[in-house]
């Protein structure tokens, strides 16, 4: 645990020191919170999604976050173009397959993006299982029908087939490269009552992987835990979802080494 705390603090400190430029092609619901989470962590967000700008802009970023929440025919070419450039230039990119199994169009789009070799795939249990099985499911929108730990085998299979680190968010966040499995246990249930918190932690993962591209599994687990610690801190001052949203951003900005060391909870299997 001490090693994880030390490395996680090193990563958040490096994000603050280097302020990596993170391009977010994301959904209309999440832009505000994603940008503010990145800023509060010390990164520099850029919500650039025009396909015309991709050839000029994507080559200069340190990381790319692709989120399909409000997917459209118009935005999909931008996502693919940016992912192609990121992969060709060796830049990390992270896929958030929001509601991947909600429709055939959405599932096909996500599977096409998975074929473009993301560095990390971050979703809930139902999204990861939909990608692993390539099936349309019956879940309600972006909500998960299964616990993160129940999707572990699907996550390992998806990691092996895609070459990506796969993170499954839930009460326990499960991260795997197909062989190793790490569990991040920080966070609060009320995050589920705030839209775009999952999208925002994906953006934070992108920033962490951008400054530590050689260790995507460790960087992903650190980002999930740091976000969870900030949520725990914020919950101590919050009165409900709206104030937690504000306190989460402030807590991430004010997070110090001592607090992180005392609160961070990452372990290998078993996750329970």
Automatic annotation (TrEMBL):
Which cofactors does this gene product need? Mg(2+)
- Give the catalysed reaction(s), semicolon-separated: 5-(2-hydroxyethyl)-4-methylthiazole + ATP = 4-methyl-5-(2-phosphooxyethyl)-thiazole + ADP + H(+)
Q: What keywords tag this UniProt record?
A: ATP-binding, Kinase, Magnesium, Metal-binding, Nucleotide-binding, Thiamine biosynthesis, Transferase
Q: What is its EC number?
A: 2.7.1.50
Highest taxon of the source? Eukaryota
Q: Does the keyword Ribonucleoprotein apply?
A: no
Q: Which GO terms describe its molecular function?
A: ATP binding; hydroxyethylthiazole kinase activity; magnesium ion binding
GO BP annotation list: thiamine diphosphate biosynthetic process; thiamine salvage
User: Pathway, per UniProt?
Assistant: Cofactor biosynthesis; thiamine diphosphate biosynthesis; 4-methyl-5-(2-phosphoethyl)-thiazole from 5-(2-hydroxyethyl)-4-methylthiazole: step 1/1
NCBIfam families attached to this UniProt entry: PRK09355.1
State what this protein does. Thiazole kinase involved in thiamine salvage pathway.
Tell me which family the UniProt entry assigns to this protein.
Belongs to the Thz kinase family.
Which named protein is this? Hydroxyethylthiazole kinase
Q: Which organism is it from?
A: Kalanchoe fedtschenkoi (Lavender scallops)
Biological classification of the source: Eukaryota, Viridiplantae, Streptophyta, Embryophyta, Tracheophyta
């Amino acid at each position: 645990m001490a090693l994880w705390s030390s490395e996680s603090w090193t990563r958040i400190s490096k994000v603050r020191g280097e302020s990596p430029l993170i391009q977010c092609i994301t959904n209309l619901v999440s832009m505000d919170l994603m940008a503010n989470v990145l800023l509060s962590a010390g990164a520099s967000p850029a919500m650039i999604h025009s396909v015309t700008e991709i050839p000029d802009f994507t080559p200069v970023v340190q990381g790319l976050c692709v989120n399909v929440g409000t997917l459209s025919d118009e935005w999909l070419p931008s996502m693919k173009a940016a992912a192609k450039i990121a992969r060709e230039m060796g830049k990390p990119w992270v896929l958030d397959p929001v509601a991947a199994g909600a429709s055939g169009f959405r599932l096909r789009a996500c599977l096409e993006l998975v074929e473009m070799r993301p560095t990390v795939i971050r979703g809930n249990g139902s999204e990861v299982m939909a990608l692993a099985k390539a099936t349309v499911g019956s879940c309600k929108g972006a909500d998960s029908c299964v616990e993160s730990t129940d999707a572990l085998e699907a996550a390992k299979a998806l990691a092996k087939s895609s070459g990506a680190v796969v993170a499954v968010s839930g009460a326990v966040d499960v991260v795997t490269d197909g062989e190793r499995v790490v569990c991040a246990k920080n966070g609060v249930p009320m995050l589920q009552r705030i839209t775009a918190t999952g999208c925002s932690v994906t953006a934070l993962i992108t920033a962490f992987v951008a400054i530590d591209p050689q260790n995507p599994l460790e960087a992903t687990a650190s980002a999930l835990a740091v976000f969870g610690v900030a949520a725990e801190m914020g919950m101590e001052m919050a009165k409900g979802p709206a104030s937690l949203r504000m306190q989460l951003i402030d807590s991430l900005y004010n997070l110090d080494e001592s607090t992180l060391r005392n609160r961070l909870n990452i372990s290998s299997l078993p996750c329970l």
